[in-house]
Write a structure and sequence with these properties.
Order of helices and strands: HHHHHHHHHHHHHHHHHHHHHH
Radius of gyration: 24 Å
Length: about 375
């Protein structure tokens, strides 16, 4: 109890320093120069970070103390926005001890704590930019997993945090993990369901839109995660190019039983076709799609994407599934879709009953071998 009181008293003193108008003005104008000045400033920053880490490392600490710690942390990071690359690099090093404590707070059941954690991560991503890569690699998966939560106060901040990191941060190889999630591949710590899958597809689409196409063409060694850089790794993420992964991801999404997941696949394809450097890749993929998918993709271009935010569109997914007995299981949906497609083929082309199915299956093989 004494240690908690001591930490609380420490935060009160730090809060006075941070929130003082005089100190705030000085901080905004001289933060960058202070970051390169050793001595008292470094000692204070180290003490500040030590107290923050101590409070955030557990979910048993008083929740109000944790939210106060994250607010102080955001106030401390904010003035670094626009600082030099050297200052941001030093800041990122100071923030590395937060990797696990912030992961702990993302797993909290109290929505106010999760909301503050997402806000803090969002500030870190927009300030650190290219220096945020190691943090994104650790937090992408738990943030993506929060998109399945039925509690709107938790789901919405996580969704906004993910989008802000992608739109305002620098390109990060962790997008490969999002491609795996969208493709329905198992990822440790991330549940596999329609909501998470559709959200991951949207995040990949935003990355293609906002990140330079050169990032997807070549991933420098220093930007790879530890698992991607390991010579012993045999993961497809190492051997396959981004365009091959995206090709397969689009096909998987478009063949899903859920309307929302298929909408995410169309959203991903449209971003792919509009923003990819090599236009021949999405064009070749388009030729492999079924006429129905091609028509819906064209309609989305006219009407706008159906899936702008999984927060608003996918929050009804569990209830819509429960209300509709005809869509009780993914298996029954796939069977009905297959029957409807077969009837349509018989009407339009009696001489080639299985041509569409062979075409799609061939696209998967071609994407894997390319």
């Amino acid at each position: 109890m004494a240690s908690v009181v001591a930490v609380s008293d420490g935060f009160k003193r730090l809060s006075v320093e941070i929130e003082s108008p005089t100190n705030a003005a000085v901080s905004a104008s001289s933060r960058e120069s202070e970051a390169s000045t050793p001595g008292a400033m470094e000692t204070r920053d180290e003490k500040f970070m030590s107290e923050i880490v101590s409070v955030l490392s557990s979910k048993t600490t008083n929740w109000e103390l944790r939210t106060k710690a994250m607010k102080d942390l955001r106030d401390w990071i904010g003035p670094y926005k626009g600082a030099s690359d050297e200052a941001l690099s030093q800041l990122a090093s100071q923030l590395l001890p937060l990797l696990e404590p912030m992961t702990v707070q993302l797993s909290e059941l109290r929505s106010s704590v999760v909301k503050d954690a997402c806000s803090t991560i969002q500030v870190m991503g927009t300030v650190l930019r290219q220096h945020f890569a190691p943090f994104a690699a650790r937090w992408y998966e738990p943030l993506a997993g929060l998109s399945r939560v039925t509690k709107q106060p938790i789901r919405e901040p996580a969704d906004e945090c993910m989008k802000a990191i992608i739109e305002h941060g620098a390109p990060m190889p962790a997008v490969r993990t999002l491609l795996k999630i969208a493709s329905g591949e198992p990822v440790p710590g991330t549940p596999t369901n329609a909501v998470v899958q559709a959200s991951a597809g949207q995040y990949v689409a935003l990355a293609i839109k906002h990140w330079p196409s050169t990032f997807f063409q070549n991933v420098p060694e220093e930007h790879k995660t530890e698992s991607e850089s390991s010579p012993a790794s045999t993961s497809p993420a190492v051997t396959e190019s981004y365009d091959a992964l995206i090709d397969r991801c689009v096909l998987v999404l478009l063949r899903a039983a859920s309307d929302d997941v298929r909408a995410s696949g169309r959203f991903l394809y449209n971003s792919y076709s509009q923003h990819w450097g090599d236009k021949s890749r999405p064009q070749a993929l388009h030729a492999c799609l079924t006429p129905r998918d091609q028509a819906k993709i064209a309609q989305d271009i006219v009407d706008g994407p159906m899936l702008l935010s999984p927060t608003h569109r996918l929050k009804s997914y569990p209830s819509s599934t429960a209300k509709s007995p005809s869509r009780a299981t993914p298996k029954s949906s796939i069977n009905r879709s297959a029957i409807a497609a077969l009837r349509a083929r018989r009407i339009t082309s009696a001489s080639s009953k299985a041509s569409d199915a062979a075409e799609v299956d061939g696209a998967v093989v071609a994407s894997s071998s390319s």
